[in-house]
Amino acid sequence: MKRLSTTFIAAVMGMVAMAQSPTLILFPSEAWMKEHNYGKNELNSATGRSRWNPDYQKAFDNENIDKTEISTALSTTSATLTAIGFKCEDLKQSMGNLGDDADMADEMGFDLDDHSQSVVPDIKVEVNWKLEKKVLATSQYSVQLIAKDYFTGDVIASIDEPGQLSGEGLKGDLRRVIESHMADFSDKLKASYEKTLKYGREVKVIFGARSGVDFNTDQIEGQVMKYYFRDTMKAIAKNGVSNIKRDTKGLQEYRVRIENGLKLDVLGEQLQNKFNGAGVHIDVKVAGIGSLVIAVGE
Fold it and tell me: What is the rounded distance in angstroms from the CA atom of residue 24 to the CA atom of residue 87?
């Protein structure tokens, strides 16, 4: 009979107290994808920059992936989180819903430095497994779990631990390592989701300046653009919960809490009408499931 660690039992008890739990989806980490050549560098023709993008479909089309250590790490992590009480989505079934903020920004005429892919679940858990060294009959490895808000890409919690293969085999070893750190990990996931339930869904709203527009000097209705954006975000946010993440003359990125039932296309239409009423030309696009990308200027 499998012995449960005290930290794992604590995690289970914590989940029992939750009326509603977040839905998770597990991905191979980008580092693992890159190491195994599941992806490619893509050139942004507008900026001349090259960006490496993972190709999850290519990875899961490989008939041998189920025999790899990363597959064992993914299935063991999923089983552990499910046993606690989290709902885990299957990545393969969600492939068609992937989106890319960066592609949307490129299409609209300005550059976005980072990107995140978005699907239906609340939280994305990236899983990495790496063999560190093998000495005689002993294999040492590292396992890493990084949980991110699926709508914003912000890191919520992580586990980064070494392990050593024993007679239990990789699956048993991984389960033991993951379970021993699960209480803190799951507490952070729960805390993040409880904020969502209480204060609303957090989304990204990104303003990008087209040629000739300067957010630090240009004005809208007598107010400097960057401050107009700030006040607008506070006004649309649930309980005024809005925070700026990036602040330059050509790029303003906000995290905004909105009502859980509010769709981004509806929010985008509201912003379009507001800016049009102020005599400012903007183009608004919904990027993936968690971002509004707004190009300001002609």
Answer: 6
How far is Cα 129 from Cα 36, in angstroms, rounded to an integer?
12
- Report strand pairing: 201-209 vs 50-54: unpaired
Q: Which helix (H) or strand (E) holds 200?
A: none
Do residues 56 and 158 both lie within one domain?
yes
Q: How many structural domains comprise the chain?
A: 2
Same domain, 127 and 265: no
pLDDT at 56: 84
Q: Between the CA of residue 99 and those of 96, 199, 288, what are the distances in Å?
A: 9, 25, 4
What is the amino acid identity at position 199?
A: Y
Under-50 pLDDT residues of the chain: 1-4, 8-9, 11-13, 15-17, 96-99, 108, 110-119
Handedness of CA 265, 107, 24, 202 (dihedral sign): negative
Q: What is the pTM of this model?
A: 0.74
Q: Are residues 25 and 122 in the same domain?
A: yes
Domain final residue pick, 176, 197, 218: 197
> Distance (Å, rounded) from C-alpha 254 to C-alpha 226?
11
Per-residue pLDDT of 102-136, as tens digits, reads 555 555 454 444 333 334 688 999 998 877 666 65
- Could you tell me the CA-to-CA distances from 111 to 102, 217, 293 in Å, in that order? 7, 20, 11
What is residue 293's predicted lDDT score, i.e. its pLDDT?
Answer: 93
CA distance 59 to 53: 13
Residues 212-249 as b or e (16 or more Cβ within 10 Å = b): ebebeebebeeeebbebbbebbeebbbeebbeeeeeee
Q: Who's near 265: CB < 8 A, 6+ residues apart?
A: 286
Together in a domain, 79 and 186: yes
Q: Are residues 271 and 185 both part of a single domain?
A: no
Contact 200, 25 (CB under 8 A): no
- In terms of domains, do 180 and 126 share one? yes
* Longest Cα–Cα distance in the chain: 73
